[in-house]
Amino acid sequence: MVAACAGERPAEVAAPEPQRPPNIILIVADDLGYGDLGSYGQQQIRTPHLDQMAAEGLRFTQFYAGSTVCAPSRSVLMTGQHTGHTYIRGNKEHQPMGQEPLPDSVFTLAELMQAAGYTTGLIGKWGLGGPGSSGHPNDQGFDEWWGIPRTTDEVFWPDDPEFKDSGVEPQYIMEGKRGEKSKKLEVYDLDKRCQLDTEATRRTIDFIQRSVDAGKPFYAYLPLTQVHLPTTPHPDFKGRTGNGDFADCLVETD
């Protein structure tokens, strides 16, 4: 102020460098319990990588899932609404896509990320409405998606003789991009069940790399299918722990 009054030119101050938005990777494990990880007291099954993340990051001890079952819990996560306020409050059947979809009126976390200039990707289990419904991932804020639109326990159906004669279409592993019609890739059956998380992880890494190469901040949502029933581990982890399929699946997730 003194320099300005004296007619002297004040020293120029360099403008601060604009901060780049942080990249966000949100990983959700399906049906993982509070005490299943070493960082939360588990002593029978080794989870060193997740334990390291907990040690180097932030460990929540009073963090609750939005619901005790799948779809409403995911609805709470995607909308930020309390279980009593969010639209989906149960695993409700809805024909013809099988899962009650999120309505167009909700504003999701993915849409928030898009509005902030993020590239958004969903790779894994969605569970909030399939193609042809208002809950389609590409209509709920995701630029691209790959995975299953519904639930994992449907893998039992394709091999059931009664199901084959029912005329009901099985669940497919699918992929889609915003503005395009999603494609059915292959039937999601027991053979594909143990491979899904490995492929989802590979595709998530690819999505991250493409986003980095494009110079855009990214939001990668990776909802894994383990350790939801059926707990069938990838062949590389089958028998790894000697404590059964659940333990093998947990080590695979780690």
What does this structure look like?
- The chain is of the alpha/beta class and 254 residues long.
- It has helices at 2-5, 48-56, 70-79, 109-115, 161-164, 190-193, 196-214, 245-253; strands at residues 24-28, 119-125, 144-148, 172-177, 183-187, 218-223.
- The chain is globular.
- The termini are far apart.
Summed up, the helix count is 8
What is the typical, i.e. mean, pLDDT? 91
Widest β-sheet, arrangement of strands? 1-6-2-3-4-5
Unreliable segments of 5+ consecutive residues: 1-10
Largest sheet: 6 strands, mixed
Q: Kindly state the percentage of residues in helix.
A: 25-40%
Strand content: 5-15%
- The strand count comes to 6
User: What is the H/E order?
Assistant: HEHHHEEHEEHHEH
Determine Rg (CA atoms, Å).
Answer: 22 Å
Give the terminus-to-terminus CA distance. Answer: 59 Å
Structural class: alpha/beta
Shape summary = globular
Secondary-structure blueprint of this entry?
Blueprint (H helix, E strand, L loop, with lengths): L1 H4 L18 E5 L19 H9 L13 H10 L29 H7 L3 E7 L18 E5 L12 H4 L7 E6 L5 E5 L2 H4 L2 H19 L3 E6 L21 H9 L1
Parallel strand pairs: 1-6, 2-3, 2-6
Antiparallel strand pairs: 3-4, 4-5
Features:
single chain; 254 residues; alpha/beta; six-stranded mixed beta sheet; disordered N terminus
Quick gist of this model?
This protein has 254 residues and is α/β, with parallel strands linked by helices. It has helices at residues 2-5, 48-56, 70-79, 109-115, 161-164, 190-193, 196-214, 245-253, and strands at residues 24-28, 119-125, 144-148, 172-177, 183-187, 218-223.
